[in-house]
Amino acid sequence: MLKILKYSFYDLMRSRWSYVYFLFYLLLGLVLLFLNQDLSKAVITLMNIIIILVPLIATIFGVMYFYNSREFTELLLAQPLKRSSIFLGQFFGVAGSLTLSLVLGLGLPFIMYGLVKSDVILNFSLLILTGAFLTFIFTGLAFNIALSNENRIKGFGYAVLLWLFMAVIYDGLFLLSLIVFEEYPLDSFSLAATVLNPIDLSRILILLKLDISALLGYTGAVFKKFLGTQLGFLISGGVLLLWTLLPIWRLTAKARKKDF
Amino acid sequence: MSKPFPYRGFVLALFFLVGGHLVMARTIPVCGDCDIKSIQEGVRQAEAFDTLLIKKGVYREFNILIDKPLTLIGQDFPVVDGEDRGEIFRVESDHVRIRGLAIINVGVSYTTDYAALRVVKSSHFHIEGNRFENLFFGIYLEKSNHGVVRDNQIMGDAVDEYNSGNGIQLWYSHNIEVLNNRVEGVRDGIYLEFSDTVHIRGNESRNNLRYGLHFMFSNDDTYSNNLFENNGAGVAVMFSKRIRMTGNRFRKNWGTASYGMLLKEINDAEISGNWFEENTVGINIEGSNRITYRANHFINNGWAVKVLGACYENSFVGNNFLYNSFDLSYNSKLNDNEFKGNYWSSYSGYDLDRDGVGDIPHRPVKLFSYIVNRTPETLILLRSLFMDLIDFSERVSPVFTPDNLVDTHPKMQKIQ
Fold it and tell me: pLDDT (tens digit, 9 = 90+) per residue, B57-103?
C-alpha cells in the first residue's frame, strides 16, 4: 500500500494540477493578507473559502484522478496485490497531496505575515485541520462515486451534484424545514441536521471559535449546552473523523467485490 | 427638573451657622485600648461636627445609628463586623462623612433590605474609600440628596438573585456623584430608581449576577467612563429621559438574555463614544425615541444593535461597526431611524471619487437576521453559502427588510 501511496503521491506532485492548486491557495492567502493586513479578519474570510472551495476541489480532483489512472489501476490489479492496498494507496496519495498543497499554499503567506507570533495561530490551525478533514472526506466520496460509475460523464455529474447538495441545497432544505416547523422544538433536530453534513459541521466547528458571542446568544438549552462546551467540540471532531472513515470503509468494501 | 441649587446662600449660611462649630470640633479616638471602645459609644458621646478617629481593629457592631453631623475616619481600615445580624451603619443626619472603613458581614433578610451603609433622608454626605465585603446591600441611599460616593470597593459573593442585594443603590436620591467605585459579585452593581441629575463616573462594575448598571425612572443622569464587564445581563436602562452616556465600556456580556446595554423606553438620550465589545447583543433597543448614537464602537458582538419595535427618530451617526456577526437587526418592515456616515466593516461598495464616502449606500440589515428573529434555531446556518446567497439577493432587491434602511454615506475608513 505504501508503495502505491508513494507512487500516486509523487505522480501528483509532478503533475501540473498540484501546482495549480498550490499556487491558487498561495495567491489567495497573499491577496487576502495584502487586502486585510489583519490576520484575524483574514482567518474569517478564509473560513468561507475553505468550507466551499476545498470540498469542490477535492471532489473534482478525486473523480478526475480516479478516471485518469484507470488503466494504471487495471495494470496493478493484474499484479499479486491486495485490492484494498491499491485503492487505499491511491486515495491517500490524492488526499495527501491535496492536503499538502492546502497547508503549504495557505500556511506560507500567513507565516510570512507573522502568524507564529500572533494569537490567531490556534484558529488558523483549526482552519487548516478542518480543511484537511474536508479534503479527505470529499476525496473519499469522490472515489466512491467514480468506483460506482463506469460512465465518466455520469460520474462527474454525480460528483458536482454531491458538492452542490452538501454546500448549498442541504442548507436550503435545512432552513426551509426549520421555518416550516418553527412551532416545534427544533434544538435536537437542528443539531442532528448539522452533524449529518460535513460542510455544516466544519462550519460550526470553526464558528465555535470565531463567532462564539453570537452563538451563545441563541435561545435554546440543548444548543447552548452542546455548542458552548468542550464536549460539543469533541463530538464535532469525532463525527468529522467518522465522516472520513466511512467513505474509506465503503471504498475498500466495494473495491473488494467489484468486477473489473 | 430639580430646583437650581442656591450656592451662594448656602455657603453664607454654612459660614455663619456651621463655621463656629467647626472650629470647636473635637477628634475622638476609638480603639480597643481607648476610653471609647465601640463606634456606637463614640457616636453617642460625640457632638455635632466632631470627628471619630477609628483605629485599626475589629469592631463587632451592627445597627450603628448616626444621627448628628459627624466625620468617621478609619485608620488602616478598621473592620466593622456586623456578624450577619442586620444593618451596620444607618445615617440620619446631614453632613456625615465616612471614610476608610472595612465593613463586612451584613445580615441577609427576605423581608428587610439590610445594607452595609444606609443613608436616610440626609444630604451632603461623603462616603469615600471604604471597603465592603460579604454584604447584602452595599451602600443604600434613600431619599438623600447632594452626596458623594467615591473610591469605594464593594466585593460581594452573591450566588442567587433572590437572596442577594445591590452594590450601590439610589432610591429617590438626587444630585449624587458616584465616582471611581469598584463593584463586583453582587446582584446589580449600581442601581438607581427615581433618582435625577446623578453623575456616575469612572466606576467599574464586574461579574455581577444580574446587571452591571440598572436604572429606572431616573432622568437627567450622566454616565461616563465606566466599565461594565461580564455581568449576568449586562446593563439595563429603562423608563428614563434625557440620559447622557459617554465613554463607557461594555464588555463580554455573554448569554441568552445578556446585553451590553438594554434600552427600554428611553427618550431624548445621547449615547456617544462608548465601546461595545464581545457582547451577545451590543445594544438592545425597545420603544426608545430621539436618541443620538454618535461615535460609538461596536466590535465583535453577536448583534451590534438589535431594534425591537416602536423606536422612532433615532440617529446613528459616525459609529464604527466592526466584525459583528450581525450589525443591525430589525423585527419590522418600518424604519424611522437615520443611519448616516458610519463605518461598516461589512460594506462592500467602492469610492470612485475618493471623497472617503462610499458611492453606493450600505444596507446593514441582512435577510438572515430577519430570519433569525423569526426562528432563532436558524442561527446554526450562520455564514453558510446558502445564507450568503440569499443575503446577497435581498441586498440587491429588498423584500423583507425595510427598503429605506440604508446608510447613504457609509465611510470608507474606520472612524478614529
Answer: 999 999 999 999 999 999 999 999 999 988 999 999 999 999 999 99
Check CB contact of A168 with chain B, cutoff 8 Å. Answer: yes
Give the pLDDT of residue B1: 44
Q: What is the pLDDT of residue A119?
A: 72
Q: Which residues of A touch B350 (CB under 8 A)?
A: none
Domain count of the fold of chain A: 1
Bridge-partner residues for B132, per DSSP?
Answer: B103, B154
Q: Among A160-169, A228-237, B16-25, which stretch is predicted with the lowest mean pLDDT? A: B16-25
Distance of alpha carbon A203 from alpha carbon A190, whole angstroms: 14
- Using CA coordinates, name the residue in chain B closest to A42: B323
ipTM attached to this prediction: 0.83
Provide the domain limits for residue A251.
2-257
Judged by CB atoms closer than 8 Å, whether chains meet at B383 and A204 is answered as: no
Judged on CB neighbours under 10 Å (0-12, 13-18, 19+), A217 is buried
B302 neighbourhood in chain A, CB within 8 Å = 211, 213-217
Closest of B396, B284, B287 to residue B349, by C-alpha: B396
Grid coordinates given for B189 = 452593581
CA distance A91 to chain B (A): 28
Give A59-102 pLDDT, tens digit per residue.
Answer: 998 999 899 888 888 888 888 888 888 888 888 888 988 999 99
What is B83-396's CATH number?
2.160.20.10
Distance CA B345, CA B327 (A): 9
